Fold:
Amino acid sequence: MNGKIVPWDQATVHVSAHALHYGTAFFDSMRCYETDKGPIIFRPKDHVARLYASAAAYGAKIPFDPLEVESACAEVVRRNHFNSCYIRPLCYFGSATLGVHPRVPKIELVILAFPWDPFLKKQGEESGIRVTISPWRRFHYDMMPTTSKASGGYLNSVLAVMDAVKRGFTEAILLNQEGNVAEGSGENVFIVKNNKLITNDEHSSILLGITRDTVIQLAHKFGLEISVQAISKEALFSADEAFFTGTAAEIVPIREIDEKVIGSGSPGPITQRLQQTYTDIIHGRLPEYREWLYPVGTSATPSTRH
Ligand code: PMP
Structure:
């Protein structure tokens, strides 16, 4: 917390923090996985770069160097002796003013780490999940930058997922203002049609996911045809396969959308191949992807950087 290791119970924030009142916090999420060479963090450089970009979209300058943040994430994992965990760096406008204009806010930075299994995994990995089209639209990128992972933006996601769960679904897909697919409450969306992979981009009001980028890179590697374009509701419903991607969720097949069965109703071959490769990468079994893995190490400064 602001450069110090603080016990969980003492990691508290004052009630006058600007972020608590106006949602002015910016965060990212990473996962640490067990490998036969010890725990690693997956793509921390990219997650930390996005954290800085999310904050910069609101004029917030994080008072640390990105490399310091990366190694602090590893330090938090080490100090907790976790072999695998979820890591949540978050910076926020602290206490200075309760005016909406934050003036010259104090930027605080915290890094939380705790065990957290991929939350859609249990139901989802083998059989796929049931999702619904949310009655809530994704906020448009000309309202707030959807590419910035800002806390305030998650009010939109909270409404969507609460509604979905209340109606018996696992997750929501939010459409954008144009009526096309935007994303899940915390995941990007991919579909497969005639062996072609399709996903959308920031022009569809989405967060540019790092798992999304991993899948795009894998598709290129596999020689799969991939197209980045708007996904209409019709294209979604008539897809051969559909899946979510996200750090917390990983790669999760979508089995049904609003009672409509997608493809065969079970995870398709392209989804399964991507899932399997993703699992192999994060557990360090594919040496060609080692540059994405940051060894947590045993000393204060990890010896391997990328
Ligand atoms: N969209 C939203 C709204 C998210 O919260 C997330 C999770 N960070 C994603 C997409 C997926 O991003 P990533 O793959 O980087 O976790």
Summary: The chain has two domains: 8-116+287-295, 121-267. The pocket of 4'-deoxy-4'-aminopyridoxal-5'-phosphate is lined by residues 29, 157, 183, 186-188, 207, 209-212, 245-247 (CB under 6 Å).
